[in-house]
């Protein structure tokens, strides 16, 4: 999966209220709770997800500013060549009952979406893991895999 293209859901928990300066977007306060970030890795989705799961030193993307204090990190990876799938996936997350967009423009500076970061109710977690992008766009998605930071570390050691 190392150089495969794809889109992903990065799921994590912010355990306490956090105020973060997010690059050019400015300073925002994030409530404690379960968050979902929708992203893409067209140059290698596993490297992008590894960056989120294992931590990163430099801050390149909006999500890098927020995840310093994140716990319970998990990713759902969808292999696809279609960049549009990122926005389709974001709209599916947006439609989950109770999902909120806390920051306009977060992760969506290269598209017309309001945001690619969501605060979701804890009760919607399993619904999120069962988003079926394959049935939404049959020919575009090759496979789907859920992985957490410990599994990612194990994959790197093989």
From TrEMBL:
Q: Which residues form the GIY-YIG domain?
A: 21-121
This protein's superkingdom? Archaea
The record's listing under InterPro entries reads: DUF123 (IPR002837), GIY-YIG_endonuc (IPR000305)
A Pfam family recorded for this sequence = DUF123
Kindly give the SMART domains that the UniProt entry links to this protein. Answer: GIYc
Give the protein name, as stated in the record. GIY-YIG domain-containing protein
Q: What species is this protein from?
A: Candidatus Methanomassiliicoccus intestinalis
